[in-house]
Design brief:
single chain; mainly alpha
């Protein structure tokens, strides 16, 4: 178990950083909605519920990333993840949703 925490803190990758930011965002939104509840019939609760439900995907990506960091060289994994993320965002912004 200590080995997993060592790799999370000492060897961050783009996927682990983005996943951590996503979970911090969900945590911030949850605490914010505790102190400022939305009006009845508002869509804010549904948005938060959808974020929590779909957080399974980033969690699976984080687990796969942490397993790969143990098997693959850290620098090589960062380069592979950066290429995959940049190609995904380029595809999304140029093909799926062009300006």
């Amino acid at each position: 178990m200590a080995n997993i925490f060592y790799h999370i803190v000492r060897r961050p990758t783009p996927v682990s950083i983005l996943t951590g930011l996503f979970f911090l965002y969900i945590l911030f939104l949850s605490v914010y909605k505790l102190f400022d509840p939305p009006e009845q019939g508002s869509g804010y609760n549904m948005i938060l519920e959808m974020l929590i439900i779909f957080s399974i995907v980033p969690l699976v990506l984080l687990i796969i990333d942490r397993l790969l960091i143990i098997k693959i060289n850290h620098t090589r994994l960062i380069i592979i993840e950066a290429i995959l993320l940049v190609s995904f965002f380029l595809y999304y912004f140029l093909v799926v949703n062009p300006f």
